[in-house]
């Protein structure tokens, strides 16, 4: 496509695109989304958004792909998708804008990011909490915990029943 046919208003400039990618990746465990640039056969610059995700299983991979496909069909904006077992690469560019990134691509990328993070990627603090709980469960049995509680209660009762020096001085 020649540069004369490019819809100028839809294209996002390089600096603004960098800012948008920073916003898109903000709060993520990794900077998943990247900007890729290449030269077309006619010498024009093309760019696209790319992301690589890895899933725990083939079934989860396809569950994610079904969500992306449904959204693509409804939004009439179709990414290029490569998948191998539990790995997915998504490429977004707008062909009608000379294979450049537009706001439609960014909106689609935001949808993909949200779906991945909400449905398929556990926040790091949840993973750490699960590990702590598992470790704690491995260290004590319920009978040990019950015994510790009984010992603490008994210790507290014996402390409460003993007179203190202060109590002795009041009785004089």
UniProtKB/TrEMBL annotation:
GO terms for biological process: tetrahydrobiopterin biosynthetic process. Coiled coil: none annotated. Keywords: Lyase. This is 4a-hydroxytetrahydrobiopterin dehydratase. InterPro entries: PCD_sf (IPR036428), Pterin_deHydtase (IPR001533). Residues 153-172 are annotated as: Disordered. Belongs to the pterin-4-alpha-carbinolamine dehydratase family. The keyword Lyase applies. GO terms for molecular function: 4-alpha-hydroxytetrahydrobiopterin dehydratase activity. It catalyses: (4aS,6R)-4a-hydroxy-L-erythro-5,6,7,8-tetrahydrobiopterin = (6R)-L-erythro-6,7-dihydrobiopterin + H2O. Pfam families: Pterin_4a. It is an enzyme of class 4 (lyase).
């Amino acid at each position: 496509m020649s540069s004369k046919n490019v819809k100028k208003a839809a294209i996002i400039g390089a600096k603004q695109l960098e800012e948008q990618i920073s916003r898109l990746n903000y709060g993520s465990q990794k900077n998943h989304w990247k900007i890729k640039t290449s030269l077309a056969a006619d010498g024009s610059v093309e760019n696209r958004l790319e992301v690589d995700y890895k899933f725990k299983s083939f079934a989860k991979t396809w569950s994610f792909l079904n969500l992306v496909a449904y959204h693509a069909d409804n939004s009439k904006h179709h990414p290029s998708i490569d998948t191998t077992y539990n790995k997915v690469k998504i490429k977004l560019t707008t062909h009608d804008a000379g294979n450049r990134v537009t706001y439609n691509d960014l909106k689609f990328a935001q949808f993909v990011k949200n779906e991945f993070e909400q449905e398929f990627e556990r926040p790091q603090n949840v993973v750490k909490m699960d590990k702590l709980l598992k470790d704690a469960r491995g260290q004590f049995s319920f009978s040990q915990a019950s015994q510790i509680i009984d010992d603490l209660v008994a210790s507290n009762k014996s402390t409460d029943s003993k007179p203190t020096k202060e109590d002795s001085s009041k009785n004089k």
